[in-house]
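Researcher: We plan to redesign the surface later, but first we want a full-length starting point. Tokens attached.
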């Protein structure tokens, strides 16, 4: 483990395997049989790690595990995964990490579920390798709607938390990384708004409704992506069953 990183705990944070790509050290775990599903945890830059599923309002890992091969991972520089921070670090590096883990596991095509920052990661994955993503479920994706300062503050807090583990990164590196992640003004952060109409992937969007996951971002994605379906109610106990069924039906209709 890289000195200073946060050790995983909880059901999904134990028994992780490690992949060394030569640049990044990525902790991950695959379990079960069936068609593969990559599950990208919520928690922002500082906590998108496998153990965060333990604290999610609705845990899709447990919901789909009986029917799929589930893949969870700690994103770079969260949990026990590590990678250098440079002025070029951006969404594409995270996508490269995710694809490297899937390649390591011998997985070509897959389904993907992501919550919170996982929505931005999914959109970058689709842009990077659309032929590999059979279908996607985005749960309250992060978005931009008059909240640039909030995300700037989250980035600064992340830098303060992990900065001691990154002697390779000077101020210019951190500022370049911030600009690449949150400086382009895209509504869904990772991809341009005008690219949403060309997304080929079937998806369901479980709508967000707060400062970090504005409903306007979810609606924009569902309106522009040609194969997207918006689910407005999914957190309430009486709505969870239908939302889970919608994801199951999506994956069944677009098999890997």
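Model: Full-length starting sequence:
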């Amino acid at each position: 483990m890289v000195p200073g990183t946060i050790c995983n705990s909880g059901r999904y944070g134990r028994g992780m395997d490690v992949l060394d790509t030569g640049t990044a050290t990525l902790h991950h775990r695959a379990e079960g049989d069936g068609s593969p599903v990559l599950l990208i945890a919520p928690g922002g830059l500082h906590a998108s790690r496998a153990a965060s599923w333990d604290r999610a309002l609705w845990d899709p890992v447990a919901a789909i595990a009986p029917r799929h091969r589930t893949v969870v991972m700690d994103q770079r520089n969260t949990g026990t995964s590590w990678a250098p921070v440079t002025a070029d670090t951006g969404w594409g590096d995270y996508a490269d990490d995710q694809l490297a883990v899937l390649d390591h596991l011998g997985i070509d095509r897959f389904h993907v579920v992501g919550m919170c920052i996982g929505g931005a990661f999914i959109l970058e994955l689709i842009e990077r390798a659309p032929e590999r993503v059979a279908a996607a479920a985005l749960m309250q994706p992060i978005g931009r709607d008059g909240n640039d300062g909030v995300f700037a503050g989250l980035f600064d807090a992340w830098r303060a938390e992990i900065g001691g583990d990154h002697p390779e990164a000077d101020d210019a590196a951190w500022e370049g990384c911030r600009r690449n992640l949150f400086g382009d003004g895209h509504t869904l952060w990772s991809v341009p708004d005008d690219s949403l109409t060309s997304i080929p992937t079937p998806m369901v969007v479980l709508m967000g409704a707060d400062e970090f996951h504005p409903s306007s971002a979810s609606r924009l994605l569902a309106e522009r992506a040609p194969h997207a379906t918006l689910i407005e109610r999914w957190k309430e106990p009486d709505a969870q069953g239908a939302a889970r069924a919608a994801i199951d039906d999506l994956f069944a209709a677009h098999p890997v």
